[in-house]
Amino acid sequence: MREKCTVALLFGGQSAEHEVSIQSAHNVRSALLAAGYAIILIGIDRQGVWRLAPDVGRVDPAWPAVAILPGGSGKIVMLDGHGGADKADVVFPVLHGPRGEDGSLQGLLKLANVAFVGPDTLASALCMDKEFSKHMLRAAGIPTVKTLSFDRAGAASHSTAASKLGSPLFVKPANMGSSVGVSKVHSEVEYDEALEIAFQYDTKVVVESFADGQEIECAVLSLDELQASVPGEIVPTNNDGFYSYDAKYIDDKGAKLVFPANLPVAVTQDIQEMSIAASRALGCEGMVRVDFFLKADGALLVNELNTIPGFTAISMYPKLWDASGIPPEKLVVHLIDHALGRFQRESDLVSGHSD
After folding, report:
1. Rounded to an integer, what distance in angstroms lies between the CA atom of residue 45 and that of residue 143?
2. In principle, which of 66, 85, 228, 302 could form an S-S bond with 275, CB 3.0–4.6 Å?
3. Is 273 a catalytic residue?
4. To 5 degrees, how large is the angle CA 176–CA 145–CA 172?
C-alpha cells in the first residue's frame, strides 16, 4: 500500500460516455493496484446514484448507495441503513462528459474538502464547453477552428453556417466528449439531421469549420511544472471520415494510432509548446489532452482540450505518456501526487474565515 494512501476511483456516470468510463476505470484500477494504492471503487449509475462497487463493471442498482460528505475531508458514508463509512485521501474521477468532466463534480469534491485528480472546477467547465474554450484560446492568441454556437431557438440555417464557415461542416453538442452526437455534414438535409442529433445531448450546439489536416494529440501532465508528451497521430480509417465514437471505442479497425507521430523535430516542439500554452490559457493542471489539426501548410489549430481523457486500452493519453517514458503505474502516481500537493497548497491559503 503506497504510504497508506487511499484512492476513491469514480466511474460510470450519467453522461452518454458511461460505458467509456467503465473501460477507462478498468485500466486506471490496474495501474493504481500496480502502484500500491488502496482503492475504494464507486460506480455512479445512470440516475446519478453513487454506489459502493465490488469491482469495475456494469453499475448494479443492488450495490449499496453511498455519498461523499460535505466538509468531511474525503469521508464516504453509507446510505439506506447500511451503516459504516470509508475515507479517501484523494478522489480519481474517471467520468467522461457532463456531470463528471464539466466542473460540477469538481465543485462537489471541493465542498467535500478532498483532493482530486485533474483540472479544477473552472478549467473543467471551460474546456467542456466548446464555445467558451475557443473564446479563451483566441483571447490568448492560440489559433483554433472557426465556429458558430446557438441554442435551438437561434439556430443558424445551413446556408448561413456554410457562408461563414465553408463546407463541409462539423455539428457538435457544445458540452460532450468522445465525439458523441458529432456529425460531419455536406448538405442542408445532413445539416438539419445533425442538429437534431446534437440537440439530443445539449441545449447548445457548436458548428465548426472543417480543418483539412492531420489529427494530432498531445498529453500534458503536471510534474514540477506542466510537461508535454511526444505527440501522436490519429488516422481515421472508418466511413465516418473523422475520429468518431465508433472509431474510438467500437470498431477496432476504425482508426490507426501512430505514436510517436512521424513529425519533424521543429513541428513536434511547436505542438508541445502550444499544448502547454493552451493548457495555461484555460487554467488546466494535473492532466489534459490537447487535440490539434496540422494543416498541409504547417499551420497548427487547437481543436479542443480534454480534462479527463480516456484511459481505455486504445486511449492516447496513457499511450503517449508510455511512449514518453512514463508507464501507467508511474503516471497515476504523478497524478495523485499533484492532486495531494495542490490540495495542501490550497488548504494553506487564508480563507478569510475568523473564529
Report:
1. 38
2. 228
3. no
4. 25
pTM: 0.90
Give the residue carrying C-alpha cell 486504445.
Answer: 314
Phi, psi dihedral angles at 315 (to 5 degrees): -80, 145
Q: All 3 cell numbers of residue 316? A: 492516447
Selecting among 304, 315, 317, 324, the annotated active-site residue is: 304
Active site residue 306: yes
Choosing from 209, 291, 303, 324, which is the catalytic residue?
291
Which residue among 37, 243, 245, 249 is the active-site one? 249
Report the C-alpha gap between 269 and 27 in whole angstroms: 29
Vertex 45: Cα angle to 291 and 221 (nearest 5)? 30
pLDDT in tens, 201-257: 999 999 999 998 999 999 999 998 999 999 999 987 766 555 545 555 555 566 788
- 21 is annotated as an active-site residue: no
- The count of other CB atoms within 10 Å of the CB of residue 155 is 18
Measured between alpha carbons, how far is 272 from 225 in angstroms, rounded to an integer?
13
Strand-pair category, 213-222 with 232-236: antiparallel
